[in-house]
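Changelog entry

Holo records now carry the ligand SMILES as an explicit input line rather than a separate metadata file. Below, a converted record for zinc ion, shown in the new format.
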Amino acid sequence: MKTNIKILGIFSAVILFALLAFKPLEKKVIVIDAGHGGQDLGAVANGVQEKTILETISKKIKALNKDSNVEIVLLREGDHFMELSERVSIINKLNPDLVISLHINSSENMDANGVQAFVSAKKEFYEKSKENAEKIINEVSGENLLKGKIAEANFYILKNSNCPAITLEIGYLSNNKDRVYLLSESGQNEIATKILESVK
Ligand SMILES: [Zn+2]
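Structure line, unchanged by the conversion:
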């Protein structure tokens, strides 16, 4: 009898473990905020517009995602203007796990290059934002896009989103090497794949 109880106990533990192991994971929601749009072109260099590259890369991130536990939400899918307040209001309704505001840098110094990230110093989401920024910047940088710094910034979207948020500056449009990479199909695919990998 004692043995039966013991076996029953082990059996229940196994069942419980199996149930816990197969409990569906909660979906991770990642918002990709392609900067600019419409009359707001963002950075322009050699006839290339920041808003267009950002829209293309954002769509690639969503299209590449085959993970049913991750949902990619694009804030801007077409070439239209969006107020920052409109973006934040959508973000706060979605309450996502992370917002990545995508931008491309530009500088009068044509040597300036590489990928950089910004986070808000706002206490409650600082650690999570910084942790994500480090992960993304490590993944996206490489021989094509040099690794830049993570800095604190008071950007509207970072400051007003009630969730972890980062602004990612994927290279400099003003730098020849960065621009060639950002404009190439293979470069855009690589950036999109790496961003997606780092948020899974
Ligand atoms: Zn921008």
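Spot-checked after migration. The chain is about 45% helix and 20% strand. The mean pLDDT is 92.
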